[in-house]
Amino acid sequence: MAMYIRVKRNKTTYFLQCDATEKILDIKQKLHNLIDQPVIDQRLILVTTGEVLDDSKTLADQKVENDAVVALVLRKDDNEFEDVNIVRPDDFYQSRDSDTTGNWSL
Q1: So where are the chain's domains?
Q2: Most buried residue, 32, 45, 52, 86, by CB count within 10 Å?
Q3: Are 22 and 29 contacting, i.e. CB atoms less than 8 angstroms apart?
Q4: Model confidence over 57-75: pLDDT tens digits?
Protein backbone atom coordinates (compact mmCIF):
# COMPACT_ATOMS: atom_id res chain seq x y z
CA MET A 1 0.00 0.00 0.00
CA ALA A 2 1.42 3.37 -1.01
CA MET A 3 2.24 5.93 1.63
CA TYR A 4 4.09 9.21 1.84
CA ILE A 5 6.79 10.42 4.19
CA ARG A 6 8.17 13.92 4.58
CA VAL A 7 11.96 14.02 4.72
CA LYS A 8 13.18 17.34 6.13
CA ARG A 9 16.58 18.94 6.21
CA ASN A 10 17.14 22.59 7.08
CA LYS A 11 14.54 24.55 5.07
CA THR A 12 13.86 21.78 2.54
CA THR A 13 11.17 19.09 2.57
CA TYR A 14 11.14 16.10 0.23
CA PHE A 15 7.84 14.25 -0.17
CA LEU A 16 8.56 10.62 -0.97
CA GLN A 17 6.05 8.05 -2.09
CA CYS A 18 6.99 4.69 -0.66
CA ASP A 19 5.61 1.43 0.63
CA ALA A 20 5.58 0.28 4.25
CA THR A 21 7.56 -2.81 3.18
CA GLU A 22 10.47 -0.73 1.80
CA LYS A 23 13.70 -0.81 3.73
CA ILE A 24 15.33 2.38 4.96
CA LEU A 25 18.20 1.69 2.59
CA ASP A 26 15.72 1.93 -0.31
CA ILE A 27 14.49 5.28 1.00
CA LYS A 28 18.08 6.53 1.19
CA GLN A 29 18.61 5.46 -2.42
CA LYS A 30 15.60 7.54 -3.47
CA LEU A 31 17.12 10.48 -1.62
CA HIS A 32 20.49 9.86 -3.29
CA ASN A 33 18.75 10.30 -6.64
CA LEU A 34 17.34 13.65 -5.46
CA ILE A 35 20.24 15.18 -3.55
CA ASP A 36 23.30 13.39 -4.93
CA GLN A 37 24.58 12.42 -1.48
CA PRO A 38 25.87 8.85 -1.07
CA VAL A 39 23.64 6.52 0.92
CA ILE A 40 26.49 5.87 3.37
CA ASP A 41 26.59 9.59 4.23
CA GLN A 42 22.87 9.83 5.06
CA ARG A 43 21.14 9.22 8.38
CA LEU A 44 17.36 9.23 8.79
CA ILE A 45 15.76 10.00 12.14
CA LEU A 46 12.06 9.63 12.97
CA VAL A 47 11.19 13.06 14.37
CA THR A 48 8.41 11.91 16.73
CA THR A 49 10.69 9.52 18.63
CA GLY A 50 14.21 10.73 17.81
CA GLU A 51 15.05 7.16 16.76
CA VAL A 52 17.75 6.62 14.12
CA LEU A 53 16.19 4.42 11.44
CA ASP A 54 18.00 1.15 10.72
CA ASP A 55 18.95 0.59 7.05
CA SER A 56 18.10 -3.11 7.17
CA LYS A 57 14.58 -2.67 8.58
CA THR A 58 11.39 -1.69 6.79
CA LEU A 59 9.33 1.41 7.44
CA ALA A 60 6.65 -0.80 9.02
CA ASP A 61 9.23 -2.54 11.28
CA GLN A 62 10.14 0.86 12.72
CA LYS A 63 6.56 2.11 12.96
CA VAL A 64 7.00 4.84 10.34
CA GLU A 65 3.45 5.68 9.33
CA ASN A 66 1.86 7.56 6.44
CA ASP A 67 2.74 11.29 6.49
CA ALA A 68 5.52 10.75 9.05
CA VAL A 69 8.21 13.40 9.34
CA VAL A 70 11.75 12.07 9.04
CA ALA A 71 14.84 14.21 9.54
CA LEU A 72 17.77 13.81 7.14
CA VAL A 73 21.27 14.51 8.44
CA LEU A 74 24.49 14.14 6.49
CA ARG A 75 27.98 13.03 7.41
CA LYS A 76 30.42 15.91 7.95
CA ASP A 77 34.10 16.07 7.02
CA ASP A 78 35.11 14.82 10.48
CA ASN A 79 33.11 11.61 9.84
CA GLU A 80 30.45 12.62 12.40
CA PHE A 81 26.85 13.31 11.45
CA GLU A 82 25.48 16.83 11.65
CA ASP A 83 22.79 17.70 14.19
CA VAL A 84 19.15 17.71 13.17
CA ASN A 85 18.27 21.16 11.85
CA ILE A 86 14.68 21.57 10.74
CA VAL A 87 13.32 25.07 10.25
CA ARG A 88 9.62 25.22 11.03
CA PRO A 89 7.41 27.27 8.71
CA ASP A 90 6.21 29.51 11.54
CA ASP A 91 9.80 30.73 11.91
CA PHE A 92 9.25 32.64 8.65
CA TYR A 93 5.89 34.21 9.35
CA GLN A 94 5.95 37.28 11.49
CA SER A 95 3.81 40.36 11.66
CA ARG A 96 3.75 42.69 8.72
CA ASP A 97 5.92 45.84 8.83
CA SER A 98 4.12 49.04 9.73
CA ASP A 99 5.73 50.87 6.85
CA THR A 100 4.01 51.36 3.53
CA THR A 101 6.48 49.37 1.41
CA GLY A 102 4.50 46.17 1.81
CA ASN A 103 7.66 44.28 2.87
CA TRP A 104 7.41 41.46 5.36
CA SER A 105 9.53 41.35 8.49
CA LEU A 106 12.07 38.56 8.63
Answers
A1: 2-79
A2: 45
A3: no
A4: 999 999 999 999 999 999 9
